[in-house]
TrEMBL record:
PANTHER family per record: PTHR33178, STRESS-RESPONSE A_B BARREL DOMAIN-CONTAINING PROTEIN
InterPro entries: Dabb, Dimeric_a/b-barrel, HS1/DABB1-like
Protein's name in the database: Stress-response A/B barrel domain-containing protein
Signal peptide per UniProt: none
PROSITE patterns: S_R_A_B_BARREL (PS51502)
Residues of the Stress-response A/B barrel domain: 1-59
Subunit structure: Homodimer.
SUPFAM superfamilies given in the database record: Dimeric alpha+beta barrel
Origin superkingdom: Eukaryota
GO biological process, one term: pollen tube adhesion
Length: 66
């Protein structure tokens, strides 16, 4: 699954980041396959030099009961 969006927060906590791209995988193995895939590597090598800064976070979602 893949999502993208632009910051619309009124809290001004974006630290200069303006856009988000989120990919969801069913397993850590799926994530590893994606990261190593030649098309991903090629795209990353083209995109990363064009960016001023980037944050990448890999996490396993956990339900929080509030």
């Amino acid at each position: 699954m893949y999502y993208r969006g632009k910051d619309v927060s009124a809290e001004n906590m974006h630290q200069g980041f303006t856009h988000v791209f989120e990919s969801a995988f069913e397993s850590t193995e799926g994530l590893a396959e994606y990261v190593a895939h030649p098309a991903h590597v090629e795209y990353a090598n083209l995109l990363l030099p064009c960016l001023e800064k980037i944050v990448a976070i890999d996490y396993k979602p956990t339900i929080v009961n509030l």
